[in-house]
TrEMBL record:
<dbReference type="InterPro" id="IPR015422">
    <property type="entry name" value="PyrdxlP-dep_Trfase_small"/>
</dbReference>
<protein>
    <recommendedName>
        <fullName>Diaminobutyrate--2-oxoglutarate transaminase</fullName>
        <ecNumber>2.6.1.76</ecNumber>
    </recommendedName>
</protein>
<dbReference type="InterPro" id="IPR015421">
    <property type="entry name" value="PyrdxlP-dep_Trfase_major"/>
</dbReference>
<feature type="compositionally biased region" description="Basic and acidic residues">
    <location>
        <begin position="382"/>
        <end position="400"/>
    </location>
</feature>
<dbReference type="GO" id="GO:0045303">
    <property type="term" value="F:diaminobutyrate-2-oxoglutarate transaminase activity"/>
</dbReference>
<dbReference type="GO" id="GO:0030170">
    <property type="term" value="F:pyridoxal phosphate binding"/>
</dbReference>
<comment type="pathway">
    <text>Amine and polyamine biosynthesis; ectoine biosynthesis; L-ectoine from L-aspartate 4-semialdehyde: step 1/3.</text>
</comment>
<comment type="similarity">
    <text>Belongs to the class-III pyridoxal-phosphate-dependent aminotransferase family.</text>
</comment>
<dbReference type="InterPro" id="IPR005814">
    <property type="entry name" value="Aminotrans_3"/>
</dbReference>
<feature type="region of interest" description="Disordered">
    <location>
        <begin position="372"/>
        <end position="405"/>
    </location>
</feature>
<dbReference type="InterPro" id="IPR004637">
    <property type="entry name" value="Dat"/>
</dbReference>
<dbReference type="InterPro" id="IPR049704">
    <property type="entry name" value="Aminotrans_3_PPA_site"/>
</dbReference>
<dbReference type="InterPro" id="IPR015424">
    <property type="entry name" value="PyrdxlP-dep_Trfase"/>
</dbReference>
<keyword id="KW-0808">Transferase</keyword>
<keyword id="KW-0032">Aminotransferase</keyword>
<keyword id="KW-0663">Pyridoxal phosphate</keyword>
<dbReference type="Pfam" id="PF00202">
    <property type="entry name" value="Aminotran_3"/>
</dbReference>
Length: 469
């Protein structure tokens, strides 16, 4: 394309961004950090209105398990469109819905699949969370909920109350185990044990101030919380604590589901069978769809107590069926495990050397790099060595403070190199990678190279601009 064509594209691109800024609310988020205008996309690649191409490691916040416009998804959508079938059917039975439900049940953990019911609710994950809360409150006759620090469950009222940034809380908040910033100053199995014992104490202490709850909700891997993976032993402990006390366990698999963590559902790593699973994002194959799957013993709904006008999205169900089947039939969960393990190892070797990187962590193709202030405090260890001081069990006690400004700089440098990444974590200081499960080995290498180069540039620039003392 000639210089004139490039200029036209640039003007078009800038005009769209300018009009968005003038017309849309101040609540927009991704558009601020990622000033691009996607016009075409295929697989992992996005082309902007300015003609630039990007590798997309955001994937619609984890929605695009197969990447953009995957052929099996497009074929499924076209088939419905060409058939003349209704696109909107409320909760009526349709062949498309039956096929989706059959494929979904085929993938569920065995202990749940044989006794499951499914509730189609509104189109977003937060709608499914609201439905799950209403379900367990109705089934138990109790009201309170248990959730965990760092959690993210959506943007509606109850979902926000159960999330880590709530400010008007009617939900009891419990410690979520983590290595880098463990609230007990330890890590690994010991940290998980202390977190579990704290939860047990809260539930059993009549003076804890926490009445017997209607349910407990947790994420097997906290995504927005900073890519923090719960230890499998802790997951099993939570299952036992809740089962022994007749507390329904709700597992939020909105972002972790459909192969993302290296198992089809993240609970499968621990062998836990929850009472309720909240599902959205990837199950719709890029289109809006959300469901609650739960044990039949909880099926106490009266007709109509929880509904939603757009719970019968036929195109989303068709795209979701194609996605679920493709992930299952092609072993993409296993590939996510193996490729994610490789990417984590290579990232630890390539960026772990920088003082501004406090931790590299993840599970499967859900990966996070925590960016810290290299001028403050000791460096947190990715694999802490035992301390000789019994009062300080390991080196995870005093990590360097998070550095959201440096993390944002890494995100900007990635974008300059044609790589789209997300930020998350307690202070928005974790660079997050959520590539599609279809990412190739060559694309994985390109992602790692671009991210490493971006971190190197930020680390160098920060060192050069530090004031001398």
């Amino acid at each position: 394309m000639g210089r004139e064509g490039v200029g036209v594209r640039s003007s078009w691109h800038e005009g769209i961004l300018r009009r968005q800024s003038a017309r849309e609310s101040a609540a927009r988020t991704y558009a601020r950090a990622l000033p691009i205008v996607p016009v075409r996309a295929r697989g992992m690649t996005i082309e902007g209105a300015d003609g630039r191409r990007y590798l997309d490691c955001l994937s619609g916040a984890g929605t695009l398990a197969l990447g953009h416009n995957h052929p099996v998804v497009l074929e499924a959508i076209r088939k419905v469109l060409d058939s003349g079938a209704p696109l909107h059917a409320l909760d009526l039975a349709t062949p498309v819905k039956d096929a989706f439900t059959t494929e979904l049940f085929r993938t569920l953990p065995p202990g749940l699949a044989d006794h499951a019911r499914v509730q189609f609710c509104g189109p977003a994950g937060t709608d499914a969370v609201e439905a799950a809360f209403k379900l367990v409150r109705t089934a138990t006759g109790r009201n309170g909920m248990l959730s965990f620090t760092g959690a993210y469950h959506g943007m509606t009222a109850d979902a926000l109350e159960a999330s880590g940034n709530a400010f008007d809380v009617r939900v009891a908040r419990l410690p979520y185990p983590q290595n880098c910033r463990c609230p007990f100053g330890v890590s690994g199995e010991r940290g998980a044990e202390l977190a579990a014992r704290w939860t047990e104490s809260v539930l059993d202490d009549p003076k804890s101030g926490v009445p017997h709850p209607a349910g407990m909700i947790l994420e097997p891997v906290q995504g927005e919380g900073g890519v923090i993976s719960a230890p499998d032993t802790w997951m099993r402990w939570m299952r036992k604590l809740t089962a022994d006390r007749s507390i329904p366990l709700i597992v939020d698999e909105v972002q972790t589901g459909v192969g993302r963590t290296g198992a089809f559902w993240a609970v499968e790593h621990s062998g836990v069978t929850p009472d309720v699973m909240v599902l959205s994002k990837a199950i719709g194959g890029s289109l809006p769809l959300a469901v609650v799957v739960y044990h039949e013993d909880l099926d106490v709904w009266e007709p109509g107590p929880h509904a939603g006008t757009f719970r019968g999205n036929q195109l989303a169900m068709a795209a979701g069926t194609a996605t679920l089947a493709h992930v299952r039939e092609n072993g993409l969960s296993e590939r996510a495990h193996h490729l994610g393990t490789r990417m984590l190892a290579e990232l630890r070797a390539s960026v772990g050397q920088f003082a501004c990187v406090g931790d590299v962590r993840g599970r499967g193709l859900m990966i996070g790099v925590e960016v810290v202030d290299p001028t403050e405090g000791p460096t947190p260890k990715q694999h802490p060595e035992p301390s000789q001081d019994p009062a300080r069990p390991d080196a995870a006690r005093d990590p360097r403070p998070p550095a959201p400004e440096l993390a944002a700089a890494v995100q900007r440098e990635c974008l300059k190199r044609g790589l789209i990444v997300e930020l998350g974590g307690r202070h928005n200081s974790v660079v997050r990678l959520l590539p599609p499960l279809t990412i190739s080995d060559e694309q994985a290498t390109a992602v790692l190279d671009r991210l490493t180069d971006a971190v190197h540039t930020v680390a160098r620039d920060h060192a050069e601009t530090r004031p001398l003392h």
